[in-house]
Structure formats: structure tokens, C-alpha cells
Amino acid sequence: MRAIRRFSVRPVLPEPLTGLGTLVNNLRWAWHPETQDVFEAVDPQLWRSTGGDPVKLLGEVPAARLDELANDNAFLRRLELAVADLDSYVTEDRWFQTAGGSPLDAVAYFSPEFGITHVLPQYSGGLGILAGDHLKAASDLAVPLIGVGLLYRHGYFAQSLNAEGWQQERYPLVDPDGLPISLLRDGDAPATVTLNLPGNRELHAQIWVAQVGRVPLLMLDSDIEENEPSEREVTDRLYGGSTEHRLLQELLLGVGGVRAVRTYCRITGHAAPEVFHTNEGHAGFLGIERIRELAADKDLDFDTALEVNRGGTVFTTHTPVPAGIDRFPVELIQQHFSPDVFGPEVPVDRILELGAEDFEGGDPALFNMAIMGLRLAQRANGVSKLHGVVSRGMFAGLWPSFDSIDVPITSITNGVHAPTWVAREVHDLTYANYTADGDSVFEGLDKTTDAQIWETKRLLRQRFIDDTRARVRQSWINRGASEAELGWVDSILDPDVLTMGFARRVPSYKRLTLMLRDPERLKALLLHPERPVQIVIAGKAHPHDEGGKKLIQEMVRFADDPEVRHRIVFVPDYDIALAQPMYPGTDVWLNNPLRPYEACGTSGMKAALNGGLNLSIRDGWWDEWYDDEFGWAIPSAEGIEDTDRRDDLEAHALYDLIEKQVAPRFYDGDVPTRWIEMLRHTIKELGPKVLATRMVKDYVEQLYVPAAKSSRSLNSTYDGARELAAWKHKVRAAWPQIRVDHVELQGLGDVPQLGTTVGIRAFAALGDLAPSDICVEVLHGRVDANDEITDPVRATLSQAETYEGNRHRYEGELKLDRTGPFGYTVRVVPNHPALASVAELGLAAGPSDPDDPSTPDLPAGSEF
């Protein structure tokens, strides 16, 4: 008989063991080996069989064993020390209190997924793992962060293969009572938030709290009795369902998330956040809710409330292609934000303006979540330097008066949380010290011999191979094989063979099957008699991505070949539990995306911290920090439009690198000195750069603190926000009158020479604006064949004289600091102390067209 409801019953711990409950309920155990040791000591065999899940462990350990531990003085002392260490971790001053803190009371960090531990399956891939590492690093630094997400009752999906190698999806039920989380209570009742929906419906959600070290993670759950069946299913699974289902999830995350934060702060006394950070556009509706709050509670008009919201909002885009952005039919947005549903405080037409694709090539019938995110945030960033460039180009249509270089999207390169991803053996070998300042000091690496390093890597290879063999055996059983025909699995892979890893999501641009372009050449590399290579591959395709599933099937069919199946394997169900032994157990991490479509790609960072070398297309973070001592760069054929030819060229470059450089260096002697030199250099020089603590420090210093300052100045009395909104309205209305009439150089000479300083004068008409409302800039630098200024240098010209008709002369100096083709131009841009960028309004007035007969005697810009 099928149960109508299920729940987990937790044990009552003997009083001396209550500290175990304290340790379980703080997810710091997920990255703290010493706490894991305490759980393992409870019952080593049960700890392994539960997959390192402390909730399951305590739920299954026999009562007699608990009674035994309650009288074990050695264990109780160990438990006491672990609890005291956790208490010190969550209360002591760390980097934020000593270096990074003021002014910043709290940050609310919204993401649709969080990858904290495999025990809490609320993630699908890199976005969620990055969000989890962000929370962990913020905790390590004591940055006052509140995470906000959803609790999906079926998570993402568990992946398996059928007999033909086709991906199968299964959605196991996630029981909150069996997770290391707790229900937020308001008095005796669960705390809830409520959203109105069309058709007089309501969406209710309760709030679960996962304590991630010092950081609370709030997760909204709609599977409660107050909801009708359709509303209970809103948080059923990650990235699933119809278009309206996805919209409801994003409404709950954004609108409901803000309400959950308010509820949590009221109940617990946590400082109210003054900065709201949306990790991708899925949570963008949080800005609409904050505007509604200000309109309803502070009686602010829409424009003033918009400025208050923008000042304290940070938006991070992870998307390198427009197809990766959520877009909803305008009619659907109108229904859910109509006055009788969302409330009368926020006009629905103003909401539609925020997400409108009102630029060249945009679709007026669609509402774009990333566009709304950019318009609701004063500060935005990509996740690597190259991705910043890509994002500025992709969203340049929002700032049509500016070149893409001026688009106000900066970049902060992602990082990874070393205590989560670095194997304990590597930590011990390198004497890595994760300090209270968030730094990793690999102080012992130079004291470690090459032989010790090599033996440690072999040990980690063997452990990974053992784990892989168990997974491959289970995969074949799931595909219909019998135990009797799987003897060969015991001999797949070899701990003395060069081991490469490739694991990631499987969209087409990541090119899972690039290595299969020439199957015979790949086989030759795998089966080389003296320098063989073995490859372990993992990755999930989105359930609706038939193309991605075909790529997986192609790879699986190649790996099924008895000739090579001991050298190449596909391991299903890539998750944190698989990744943690994989990164330390591989020697080379392979990544071959279509450049420049990899936003960052942090898997190679995790491998590097474990002494793995990277073999990658120069995309994402690898483009930024590539060094030939960290690995190898696969030459990119970017620019070749024939995709088949491009794939062939890059695949053969990959084969050549493996055959002629990577494998010979790995097999150069019993202890390959040159290889180990690269490994040492990678850990010491690249390691500190790729840390999530470095990333979070960058967010605090470059985005959070400036946003907090803006938020405070605009929130104090709201007069600043009112003035800023009125000023923007005035500037937009007056801008058509702004023009640069005339530009001239003085002292140029007949032959411009390097080092010469020349005077520049510009005459500008300001219409109805005052000189304080604008700034006149000169941009200069080397020019290309199309007279475009590359990498321009900016300088501000000073007001020198005023004429009738609100015309003004501006002056400055221009230093000829480079040889070759040199060009300059002048522009007028809005100027206000509350602007984060000169491009914020998207307005700029430059020189007139030199070919226009109405242009003054001299052209406004020149090239020489």
C-alpha cells in the first residue's frame, strides 16, 4: 500500500550527545574534515554506507551505540572540542570585521540554486555550486550575508543510462525532515509568505533555514497544505515545468524571497540587508517587490522608489549567450502584475518597461529577465574578464550611445571554496593554511619532496578509480547487465596511467564530443604502448535538451567499446559527491568550449588546487590567468564560420598537445620532475587567485560597499532619491538639445611626435542644463583601420568660458603617448555624484558628423 504522506523521525540524543545535533544543524561539517571525523567515529561503517550524511547516520545508528558513546569519555571530549571550535568559528572576528566591513550591515544574496553539499540536492550545475561557494566563503570571512533560494521537493534530477546509452531522468523525493535544515517559526507556527495570483488564487510558502557556517540560507517551500494542488507544485523541481510554472518559481524567489528576508530579520533580529544581490536574472522580481514596499510603506512615487532600489542592488550575469536568458510573454507578466493581483502601488506598464527588449533586434512580445535585472541594478558584473567583455557586447543595445567598452558591466572572476574541494591529503601535503583573512598559504609545499607529491597523487588516483569502478558497475547494472558479465569493470583504469577529467553540463557549446572528431586517433592515444591516457567523463544534459542527450549517447557508445572501455568511461549522475574525489584524482583537467561562450568554468580551478594541470581553450577564467606553467592552451580557431572545420582544427590541436607535450612530460621518469615543477607552480601561484574568498572580498570592496553607501544616501530621508529621479527626468528631457559644436587642437605642429602635449578646446551647447549637470570628456588612443579608438584613455576637460545661448568652452591637454595611428574624440555625458557610471543613463552627445554640411569649419574629432 502506498503511503499518503512520508516524513523522517529523528532520534532523541542522550543528553551528553546533544552536541552532535549542534554539529549536524550547521552545514560547516560539509567542508570541515575534523567535524566529519567526529561523525565517522559514531559508526564508521554506517558513515560510509550513508554517503557521509550525518542526518541519516544519526537516524540509523542503534540506540545501544548512542548509549555507549554517551559513556565514552574520549569521544565526549572530542565532541566537546568540535562544538567549541564551531562556536568559535561563528562568533570570532574575521576578515570582514578587521578590514572589509564598513559601511555594510547585511547583504541578501538571491539564487535559484545552491550547491552546498550532496546531502542537500538543491543545485543543477555551475551556477548553484558557485552560489554555494559564495555562501561558504562569506561565512569564512564573516561577511553578513543572507542566502535566499527555493526548496525543491525533487531537486534537479538523478541521471542514469539505458541499454542504448540514452540519458534517463529520475526525480527522487527530497524530505525536508531528513535534511540538515530547520523550519523558521513565528511563535509556535511556521513562518510563511503569501503571494496573490491571478484568478483570486494565493501562493503560500513556508521558510526553511539551512545554517551555512555563519550564513543563514532561506529556502521557500510551497508544498504545504494551505495551497491548492497546482500551487503546491510550484517548488516541485529545479528548472522544470511550463513557462508559467517557471514564472511562478521566479515570482516566489524574487517577491517571496524579499518577504521571507523581512520575516527572518523580524523574528531573529538579524540586521536588515541594505544590499540585494541577484545571482542571474531568475530572482530579478526582487526589485519590483522592493519598489512596491517603498511605494506602499513610504509613499514614494515609482521613479523615486526605483532609484532607492537601484542604489542598493547588484546584478551578476553568468550567461554568455542570449538563448540562456529567461524570457516570458508580455501577456503573462501583465496578468501577474495587474493592480488587482500584485497591488496598485506599481503600475504594470512601468514593470513592462523594465523588461522590454526595446532595442535593435529585440522582441517586443517578450519580457526579458536579464534586461530587467540590469535596469533594476546600479551595479552589474560578469564572472571573468573575458565574460565581462562578452556581456558588454551582448547587452550593448541598452546603452546605444556608447561603445561596448563603456557599457556599465564590470567583472569579478569566480572562485572556488578550497576547504570544500581540496582533498585532505593535498591539504596536509602542502600545509595549506586557510587563514581568518580568507587566504591560503601553501607554506609547506617547498618542504615536500617530489617523491612525496608523486606518491600522494597516485594515492588519490587510486581512490578515484575505486569510486569510479563502483559507479560504472552500478551504471551497467541499471542498464540491464548482470553481475556475471561485469568482471571486466574491476580492471578499468590504472593508477599509474595519465588520468584526464572532463565533467560539466552538456550544452552544445561545451563540446563534450570534441575529442571524438577522429575516433581512431583518440584510440591511439588511449592505447599507446608506452604513454597511454585514460579519461573519465561526466555530465548531465537538461531534460528537454535532446541534442545534449545525443552527445552523451555518442560518448557512451564510444566508451562501451571493449577495445577502449578500460581507458575511457562515462560516469552518470555528476554531482558534488562524484566531483570531490574526481578533482584530486585527475592529473589533467580538460575543457574545450567554443570560445567565448564559457562564462567562467570553475571546474578547472578546483582541479588546480588539487595539483591538476589544465588543458583548455583560452576561455573564461583560463583566458585571464593562463600560464604555460599551469598547463596547456588549446589553440582556438575562433573566427572560422564553418563549425565542422573549426571543430576539426581544434580537435587535432588537442590530440597534438596530448601526444607531443602532455603525455611525454607525465611519463618522463619514475618521478617526472618537470611535471611536478608545474604542479608546484600551479598550487602556489594560481591557487591564491582562484579562491572564493578572493572573489567575495572583491564583491565586498568593489560592489557591496559602494552599493551600501548608495543605499544609505538614498534611504536616509529619500530626499536624495527624489532629487536624483527628478534630475534624471530633467536630463532626459533636455538631452536632444545637447551638442558638441566644435573641437580644435593647439600646438600640434606639422609632424606630431611622441611625448608632445597639445591643447584641446571643445565648444558645447547645453540647452536647458547647467554645466554641473554634464561632464565633457576627451577620449584618445590608437585607432584601427576603421578609425575606431581601441582601448581609449579618458580625460575630463575643464570649463573655461561661457557664451550666450548656454554655450561653453572646455579646455584640457592631450599627451601623445604612443606612436602610430592616433585618434581622439569629445563627448558630453551626464554628471551627478549619485551615478555609478557615466553611461548609467545611456546618454552621450558627441561631435557632429564631419560629412554633414552644417558641421562647423573643423571636424570635431581627428586622426593622425
UniProtKB/TrEMBL annotation:
Q: Which domain of life is it from?
A: Bacteria
| Biased composition, class Low complexity, residue ranges | 855-864
This protein is called glycogen phosphorylase
Q: What is its EC number?
A: 2.4.1.1
Q: Which InterPro entries match?
A: Agluc_phsphrylas, Glyco_trans_35, Glycogen/Maltodextrin_Phosph, Glycogen_phosphorylase_DUF3417, Pyridoxal_P_attach_site
**Domain DUF3417 as annotated: residue spans:** 13-120
Q: From which source organism is this entry? A: Kribbella speibonae
Q: What's a Pfam family in this record?
A: Phosphorylase
According to the record, the residues making up region (Disordered) are: 843-864
Q: Give yes or no: UniProt keyword Glycosyltransferase.
A: yes
Q: Which UniProt keywords apply?
A: Allosteric enzyme, Carbohydrate metabolism, Glycosyltransferase, Pyridoxal phosphate, Transferase
